[in-house]
Amino acid sequence: MNRRILAAALATTVSLGMAGTALAPAQAASGKDWTQTTSQSEDGGHWMGNPDAELQLQEFVSYTCIHCAHFTQESDVAMRLGYVHDGKVRIEVRHLIRDPIDMTIALLTNCGDQTKFFGNHRAFFNRYDDYMDKARAATPDQIKRWNDAPLDSKFKLIADDLGLYGIMEARGFARAQLDRCLSDEAKTREIARQSAAGMNAYKIKGTPSFVLNGKLLPDAHSWDTLKPELDDTLGL
């Protein structure tokens, strides 16, 4: 199915609640692996890295955005090993919800303990082509079934049709646990609210978008354009 048609058909359901301090040299030389330090903020973001890092980077991403998938696939190892590991940069992943598929995956990435989030996040972007090929091939009857379903079962139908359960089951999650996460209406509305708040706060118009030390980077939308911004700020 044409991507534009799919997006238009899915958009009808989005309204259902989807509507620093400089790093001290002693810290950098400590040998601590800051990629193992994660937390979840009150506004729903997931942080990785040194809380006192010189650079605080927020990544606004969508799980149905191919450019977000490319960014994550290209930057993941380089970002973690080259910038986060030794405490220079702290990153936060923020959801920007565009459609019900986005919301389905956001609910799944947030399933379980917050320490699982970044592994869940990478797992989905590494399988982007698999689930989006299924989404593009969805029939009008499938999309109508998703749209017509009540909120507590809508995302379970999408997860089943697009093979999303298997991605999480491979990470050790049980189907019953995933179903509870996908039918959590309060979490659904919380993620939708946080998505809208982040987008409005920084005037974000597309994904991926990056906010560095509280300021939107208007010309950075890929790893090739973000990396120079990080290096210039760090004086590398």
From TrEMBL:
Q: Which domain of life is it from?
A: Bacteria
Pfam families referenced in this protein's UniProt entry, alphabetically:
Thioredoxin_4
Recorded GO terms, molecular function?
isomerase activity
- Family annotation (Gene3D superfamilies): 1.10.40.110, Glutaredoxin (3.40.30.10)
List compositional bias (Polar residues) regions by residue number.
33-42
Per its record, how is this protein called by name?
Protein-disulfide isomerase
Signal sequence, renumbered to the chain:
1-24
Region span, Disordered: 29-49
User: Where in the numbering of this chain does the Thioredoxin-like fold domain appear?
Assistant: 43-231
Q: What keyword terms does UniProt attach to this protein?
A: Isomerase, Signal
Source organism lineage? Answer: Bacteria, Pseudomonadati, Pseudomonadota, Alphaproteobacteria, Sphingomonadales
Please verify whether the record's keywords include Manganese: no
